[in-house]
Every structure is written in structure tokens, then in C-alpha cells.
Amino acid sequence: MSTETVSPATPVERFVSQFLGDSPDLVAVEWIDSFGCPAGWEFEDEVEPAVTTVKTIGFLLKETDDFLFLVPHISTTNGRRQLAGHLAVPKLQIVQRGRVTSFSCPDAE
Questions:
Q1: Nearest to 54 by CA among 68, 73, 66, 64
Q2: Which segment of 64-68, 70-74, 104-108 scores lowest on mean pLDDT?
Q3: Kind and range of the H or E element at 96?
Q4: Which among 34, 40, 72, 102 is least surrounded, fewest beta carbons within 10 Å?
Q5: What is the dihedral of CA 75, 32, 105, 83, to 10 degrees?
């Protein structure tokens, strides 16, 4: 039985493997969200309701029937994992999604 370790093929796969091991996947999601939440009162006839399209890239930490739980920033301090910028994207709002397997960046190799 061979114990040879195969290096991930793409820069992103090497990045994920180096920092997080075999999981989680890095995914890109395009989704529809509400737009605006003003700080104060507005007159009804001046309100312009809208939605916006959001593009998010993050590590997929959890997926349920209802949402994808994405985290763009993961750190370990004192032996405990920390998360920053996490969000749950409702699956009903997703326009498209895909696994990130490559990217173009100077010094990515």
C-alpha cells in the first residue's frame, strides 16, 4: 500500500489544502438580496424598492436544504477556529453557484 501524497493540481486547491486540509470547498455563489435599509424614516412616495445581485466567494462550511453557510475568513487562535464575515445564503435566492478550482493572481504558483 502506497503512502504517497499527491499534491493538489490547481493553485486554489493547493491553497485550501495548505490552510484547511481536505475541506471545506471554496465556492462562488451569485444570489439575489434585498437592497437598502435606510437609517431613518422616509416618505412613502420617495421610497424606491429594489433588489441587488451579489457575488460571493467563500469556504462552504455547511449546506442544508435551505441555505449555504459561507465564510470568507477563517483563523485559528489558541487552538480554536475563528470565523469572520460569515453568512447564510438562502438557496431560494441563488442564481448560480460553482466550486472554485482556479483563479488568476500574481505569484499564485
A1: 68
A2: 104-108
A3: strand 94-99
A4: 40
A5: 0
